[in-house]
Each structure stands twice: as structure tokens, then as C-alpha cells.
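Before the break, one more example. Copy the sequence into your notebook; we will annotate it together after we see the structure.
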Amino acid sequence: MRLFHNRRKEFEKLTWPLGHDLFRLAYWRLGNQQDAEDVVQEAYLRAFRSFHTFQTGTNVKGWMTRILLNVINDTLKKRIQRPDVLAIDEGCVEMMSLQDQSASSRDPEVQLVEREIRPDLLNALQQLPTALLHPLLLRELEDMSYAEIATILGIPAGTVMSRLFRARRVVKDRLTQNVKGTAKWEVADHELQ
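Here is what the structure looks like once it is written out:
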């Protein structure tokens, strides 16, 4: 029992400070608070179960991030296999309205993360293939080096650099298209007045 307690304490000491970063990464990838919380919780469970394989002195953030990305991938695969289908009725609409009204009573940390994310940027990121998205999020959100990203994703550093270049270019193009599309509508609205 004492061994379990010591192991749990060591696990908490190493991984607890990473919680916010893991949540932020999950939220950026999934775009939903509940899903992000669920995958972070599952990542912590998987990490604790395999903590005996963790080598002390190695990169705990990289190890946890790799586990989180695996959980996110599993979650997205399940979504594809079993898409959610909901019938929206009046009760559901009222419930959604109440949720929106209670936004101010939610966790301040979640509110901060939600405000950090521009909807057009989130949409552009969600459309990226995983091979481009993961290096971009790890570099820009987690400020990881090319070598750290290469280790976590199991790809060469040169591949990380090329994927980052392509991901940034695609996101920039999509955001530019959104701005041009918005500008066209603004001109059209202006002409009507």
C-alpha cells in the first residue's frame, strides 16, 4: 500500500503542473470544453496506469503530450465511427439558452481559454489533417522545440519543419479566404444602406 501511495505522489508531482497545458491543447484540437476535459482525464488515467514504464529524468511533458494525442486520436476515430445524432426540440433549445446564460458562472480558466480562440482560427485548425495539426499545436501552443516534437510524434526533425511550414501556409490561406469573404459581405451590406 505504501508503494502505491509513493508512486501516486510521484506521479502527481510530475504531471499535475501540466494539466492546464494539456487541457489547452485538447481544447484547441477538439473545440469543446467537455470533450477536452474528458480526453485530459483519460490521458491522466492512461498515464498513471503505465507510469511504471516512465523513466525518471526523461521528458515528462513529452510523455504526457504523446499520451494525450493518442487519446485525442482515439476520440476522433470513435466520432467518425459513431457520429452523434441529436433531435433538437424546444426543451433542448431552452437548455442551450440556459447554458449560454450561465457562461459567467463557469470555470474562469475555461472562459479564458475560450476567449483566446478565434472561431475562424479554430475552424481553420480543425480542418487541418492530424499530420499537420499536431506539430503546429505543439510548436505554437506548447512552445516545443523541433527535436521535442520529433520525439513525441516519432518523426524526423526535418519532417517536423516541413509539416509546420505547410500547416502555417494552409491556416494562413484559410484565414485570408475568410477575411476576403467577410470583406465582400461587408461591402454588400454597406451598398444596401
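The longest helix spans residues 157-192. The two ends are 75 Å apart (CA to CA). Try to locate both features in your own notes.
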